[in-house]
């Protein structure tokens, strides 16, 4: 199945790349929460291929989500992770596809602009363009580069808390990056570019594939209490495994 999903991500990525350099119709789901015709087009393309080939597997996809997350086995699809980047021409955009069942987990994240395909299957390691990748071995947060993101709702609420944490992380690390795609942020933790990443308010399709890739690259993906992250958790915290306690302390205001 992983080869099928990689090919599907490549083909979906071709559509994203084709329209990346063009003007597209942009709509508002919220004050700063954007969606384009291409998000919908790519999602429909992926869903059709998945349902044609795996009719017994449910599909959870951002632009057609109906609120149901109770499945034995499901695909999680984010057709364009980084829609704001897509609209503004910032090259951090990715298609993210994951498959989850009781005994098998697969994650594929493809950035068609930078031509980077990250993928992992449970128990088989994580890869970028066919080279195995691993998290960094930085063990002091003072030497770390940390990624984060801000939920679209942050323009209306919890901005003070986010700024407070941001200030503390900034003072404790080498720097912070906000690249605008949760899926790529996670893959860059897996690749050892970022030593850690945290964000609040994400949805399953943002992070399911990236979580598998980080874990297979030797990292940890947790909630704010230091337990394995699951969908209902508010904060996601991904690290190389070495700076977890320091990052959790900051996020918890300790
Ligand atoms: C968004 C991106 C972004 C994160 C937002 C997500 P979208 O996904 O992952 O990095 O900060 O919270 O919603 O809407 O571009 O698919
Ligand atoms: Ca979106
Ligand atoms: Ca997303
Ligand atoms: Ca999206």
Automatic annotation (TrEMBL):
- What SUPFAM superfamilies does the database record attribute to this sequence? Carbohydrate phosphatase
- Its top-level enzyme class, in one word, is hydrolase
Biological process per Gene Ontology, one example term: signal transduction
Record-listed E.C. numbers: 3.1.3.25
Q: Which cofactor does it need?
A: Mg(2+)
Task: List the catalysed reactions.
Answer: a myo-inositol phosphate + H2O = myo-inositol + phosphate
Entry binding sites for Mg(2+): 62, 78, 80-81, 206
* Record-given protein name: Inositol-1-monophosphatase
Native species:
Deferribacter desulfuricans (strain DSM 14783 / JCM 11476 / NBRC 101012 / SSM1)
> What family does the database annotate?
Belongs to the inositol monophosphatase superfamily.
InterPro entries attached to this UniProt entry: IMPase (IPR033942), Inositol_monoP_metal-BS (IPR020583), Inositol_monophosphatase-like (IPR000760)
Ordered alphabetically, the record's keywords are: Hydrolase, Magnesium, Metal-binding
Q: Which CDD domains match?
A: IMPase
User: Which Gene Ontology terms cover its molecular function?
Assistant: inositol monophosphate 1-phosphatase activity; metal ion binding
């Amino acid at each position: 199945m992983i080869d099928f999903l990689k090919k599907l991500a490549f083909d979906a990525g071709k559509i994203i790349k084709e329209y990346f350099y063009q003007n597209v119709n942009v709509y508002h789901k919220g004050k700063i929460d954007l969606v384009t015709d291409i998000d919908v087009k790519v999602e429909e393309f992926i869903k059709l291929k998945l349902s044609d080939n795996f009719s017994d597997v449910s599909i959870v996809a951002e632009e057609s989500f109906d609120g149901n997350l109770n499945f034995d086995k499901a695909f999680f699809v984010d057709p364009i992770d980084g829609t704001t980047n897509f609209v503004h021409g910032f090259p951090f955009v990715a298609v993210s596809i994951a498959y989850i069942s009781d005994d098998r987990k697969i994650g594929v994240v493809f950035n068609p602009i930078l031509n980077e395909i990250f993928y992992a299957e449970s128990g088989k390691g994580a890869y970028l363009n066919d080279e195995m990748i691993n998290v960094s071995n930085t063990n002091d947060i003072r030497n770390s580069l940390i990624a984060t993101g801000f939920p679209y709702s942050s323009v209306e609420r919890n901005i003070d808390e986010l700024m407070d944490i941001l200030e503390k992380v900034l003072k404790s690390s080498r720097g912070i990056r906000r690249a605008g795609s949760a899926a790529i942020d996670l893959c860059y933790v897996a690749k050892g570019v970022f030593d850690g990443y945290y964000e609040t308010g994400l949805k399953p399709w943002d992070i399911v594939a990236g979580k598998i890739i980080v874990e297979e690259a030797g990292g940890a993906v947790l909630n704010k209490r230091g337990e394995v992250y699951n969908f209902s958790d508010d904060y996601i915290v991904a690290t190389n495994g070495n700076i977890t306690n320091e990052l959790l302390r900051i996020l918890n205001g300790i």
